[in-house]
Fold each of these.
Amino acid sequence: MNNLPSFSAPKITVCGTGYLGATHAICMAVMGFDVLGFDVDQHKIAQLRVGKVPFFEPGLPEKLQEALASGRLNFTTSLDEVAQFGDIHFVCVGTPQAIDSAAADLRYVDAAFSELAARITRKALLVGKSTVPIGTAARLTRMVADISPIGSELELAWNPEFLREGFAVKDTLRPDRLVFGVASEWAEAGLRRVFRPILDSGTPLIVTDLATAELVKVAANSFLATKISFINAMAEVCEATSADVTLLAEALSLDARIGGRFLKPGLGFGGGCLPKDIRAFKHRAEELGVGQAVRFLGEVDSINNRRRVRTVDLIRELAGGDLSGVRIAALGAAFKPNSDDVRDAPALDVARLLYLEGAVVTVYDPEANANAHRLYPDLNYVGSLAEAAVQADVVALLTEWEEFRQADPDRLGALVRHRRILDGRHALDPDGYTSTGWEYRALGRPYQPRTASVQQRRDGMAQPDLAHGAAAAEDRLNNLL
Ligand code: UGA
């Protein structure tokens, strides 16, 4: 090979210190590398420097302390320093959904690669970790070669990331697999060196071309989203019959070919990844002329969005048919437990839809109140489950935090005005609630009224028209966005 650094002890930089980048930088330092983390956000960098993780991620603060104490982890807001320091530069900036289309907004990725390319003056490897449309790495390779003072000596690779929020440390240090998208043996050798501790522990590695590496990531997220929407579509069918989607999911999961993971019915998927990734993938496939191949992802998205509207319908039914003035305890705001991330959070959309129908909504999330307040300041936020529940007409469990799972139905019942609960995540024990006098409702489960009078009231109500409901659901969500 050419006049290359041998990667005996490569210095690593990580550009972008969000959920992905901060975790990657910290874990690389813990694994023994010298690491420099970069972000344009001075506040974030200031926090990281003093050992504060700027978001909620179990286990990460301890790893940050460990990395800082080792002296191997530093942070900067200077790209000149980054260019000087690194042999291998990981780019971990966000690729949010564009404001005016379903495409991914690549401005941060383009900026990171071009700014680095303009500054790096010795042989180095740029590694993209962000989730990008297929073909981006090839385009960036051309762009980098044009901009770089050292031309094609500055190489590019793609190393998709599969970490889940809430399990970021484990997924980084002990991933299910590693994928290296490379264009040369030198790039592969660089990545093998960086991930040696993980590879040595037996983690499978797939080495691919750049495009396949990009595709692995969006295909994985699309598969997961499809699996969730499949069981939620079955929940819609259950709602039109007397079938129970939780039993259905259990029976399906026992078929080893199907498996139970990501087959949990409920309010559906949200967050900063699955929703925008399936939309961007569909958009990119259309650009490539193969839109038909992934057209089903539009349906996956619609099924998912309908769950939010159907949840509101069930809460309205529980409240007697009209939400105006109804006091609702909304338990959860984050898109999933063990996260403070409220991007595209189903829980918050439900809270907002309830509010728009005139309900008095009080939100409590153990970690995400501040982020939720920033997004939807017109909802009430309180600091405890008990405060949310006081005098509630309906309690709605929207994010399945352990605290909500563990709540004692009778003690909770002593706080509320009416014992009515909507379990949006199939996280509660229905018997525990119904046996203590609660009306319990859940998506895709037959309704078992607590008393005859409840049944009479329900009999008098219009039953949901699922076909019409789908179109109406889209309209209501569109109004919200
Ligand atoms: C997801 C993928 O799982 C990661 O592999 C990937 O790296 C990441 O996106 C990313 O692209 O960066 P994450 O967004 O952290 O990770 O969350 P998940 O654990 O996948 O959950 C996504 C959503 O699906 C949550 O709202 C969760 O409540 C929901 N979900 C999950 C269900 O509704 N049912 C299930 O059975 C599983």
Note: Residues 451-470 have pLDDT under 50 and may be disordered.
Amino acid sequence: MKRYKIAVIAGDGIGPEVTREELKVLNAAAELDGGFAFDFTEYPWGCEYYLQTGRMMPEDGMEILKQYDAILLGAVGSPGVPDHVSLRELLLRIRRDFDEYINLRPVKLLKGANCPLKYAKPEEIDMIFIRENSEGEYSGQGAWLYPGTPREIVIQDSVFSRAGCERVIRYAYELARKEKKTLTSVSKANALNYSMVFWDRIFAEIGREYPDVKTDSLLVDAASMFMVKNPKRFQIVVTSNLFGDILTDLGAAIAGGMGLAAGANLNPEREFPSMFEPIHGSAPDIAGQGIANPLAAVWSASQLLDFLGYESWGRKIIAAIEKLLTRGEFLTPDQGGTAKTSECGDALISLLKA
Ligand code: NAD
Ligand code: IPM
Ligand code: MN
């Protein structure tokens, strides 16, 4: 029996509510399979912890996490703690310090999911976003000069390294080759005359090694428009950290909503643990009511199973989500249902067992 050590940071708001269902689903898959099992260790890190200790995680938090095979994260952020503190010191710190440079976010319209686009068929929205996840606009570098004076200046630096661009773009080309899909790069070189010119150049350079991969290169403004007007144009998409953040919320909106959007933060070399999470936040507007949709977190559990080599379980979980959506019972309010978070999780497990 293979056992996996998984660190769980359920975090804030609806984070613990959706993570509970995610763990239930993972345990159910392990039991049904019989060949693997999970040892989950939960860490109470997040905004409550910050208010008590002044830190989002203990000083040796990264050392602790390093021992695990993977990390599951719920959500981080609370109205009582500034977002730039809570997110930079926990979620973004883990992504960066564990060199999880690939943020892999499926934008796939499952059968039965709500789509606000009048003309889109499920099979027409089927993309995988590869978002650069370690540098770019999220470098966290900059300066704040003369604060509070009329001369006040802030500088927010973007950092695009050759190594950083090459590795994420190469990962995307490899995936496109493997899956025989087209690859679209999204950038903005008409306005960002250093970073995005560099990005485009590297995209073209690496492309010469992949003559079999059909590519497209779009400006981010046009890409946003095409995602709504003609989503079938996109298969694999590679883009920078900030553009990927924004476009995947748009992707979530056209593929069933934030309650269905998941993401994997991967360190492909497996030198450090990778981290799996729903892409939504702590949703303070619905936290504590037991009505959050757990399916995004459950989808991220399927990404964990893929990552550990149990792709057939990954697929079974997605199939169970699709069945749940098609049947329409046991859905949470964001999907037009009246079920509680736990009822939705339980129904999914029944489908998995069926
Ligand atoms: P959000 O994703 O928390 O919520 C946006 C909207 O989507 C809200 O109306 C919310 O109710 C709804 N929603 C989100 N997840 C849902 C779910 N599972 N089921 C049903 N409805 C859901 O984004 P926000 O309001 O911009 O941010 C709230 C806090 O979360 C902020 O502190 C923000 O910084 C943080 N945040 C954290 C993460 C993360 O931890 N990965 C991601 C995004 C935002
Ligand atoms: C996401 C989130 C984070 C990001 C925030 C909370 C820092 O929006 O995972 O999409 O911007 O990456
Ligand atoms: Mn986001």
Note: Residues 218 and 310 are 35 Å apart (CA to CA).
